[in-house]
Amino acid sequence: MTTRYYDAHCHLQDPRFGGTVEEILKACQDRGIQRLVVNGTRESDWDRVAELAERYPDLILPSYGLHPWWSRERSANWREDLEARLLANPRASIGETGLDRWMENPDPADQEEVLLAHLDLAERLNRPLSLHCLRAWGHLDAVLRAHPRPARGILLHSYGGPAEMVRPLADLGAYFSFAGYFLNPSQEKKRAAFQLVPEDRLLIESDAPDQVLPPELDEFSLIDPDTGKRLNHPGNLPVIYRHWPPADPERVEANFRSFFA
Ligand SMILES: [Zn+2]
Q: What distance in angstroms lies between residue 137's CA and the mean position of ligand 1's atoms?
């Protein structure tokens, strides 16, 4: 039987993919990829996420959220719009959202306000919540401890926090998704942290078009025509599974199904 793969986090709506989504999904299917969770990051891309999920209902699970890089441009009624999309589609998740102190001029209080709105919705509707966090692990941990969380848990996408926080975050209900970028030799610390992730909380993600794999592992060599920079292809997902030995595909499938079900 062929192996089945699940992409816990990507951005197929990203304009850098241009008109090639059809081709990209074909390549994913050829490689055994069963589902891709496509994360919106700002209100202006939510329609595109919804359109992809409608066009490819067997492959794409939509997710809607405000990423901290874009949340300052939100409209006055973004919460109502988000809730309406979730109520309209029981398969829809929440995110990507989160906290980021790596970006230029972060506003932690404003980021927290936006995060709390997502967290509240996720808890009330018990939907999967995908969180982004860069250099704000103490803050995120404090927020999660202080507020009600969805019964099904939360996803720390592309977990890059300290190894010693893995256990306490898992006790709060966290899943952790491993990204192909972590296969770069420089990412040793992140791989060490992932060794501590409980086997029933491990997910795998492409985060495509971001988080490119080391060039020698990249099976696609996609290039952004506007910048000439390398892009990640979600069809690289099986490569990530194969080069991250703790990823047993059947275990990851069970984890994906229980979290995103
Ligand atoms: Zn992302």
A: 17
Cβ(232)–Cβ(213) under 8 Å? yes
DSSP string, 98-111: EEESSSSS--HHHH
SS3 229: coil
Counts of helices then strands in the chain (DSSP H, E): 9, 10
In the sheet with 93-100, reading across from the earlier edge strand, the strands are 5-10, 33-39, 60-64, 93-100, 129-134, 154-157, 174-179, 202-205
**Number of other residues whose CB lies within 10 A of the CB of residue 235:** 24
Ligand 1 centre to CA of 16 (Å) is 14
Instruction: State pTM to two decimals.
Output: 0.97
Residue range 97-106: mean pLDDT, rounded = 96
Domains identified in the chain, total number: 1
Residue 47: domain span: 5-260
**Across 76-162, where does the E strand assignment appear?**
93-100, 129-134, 154-157
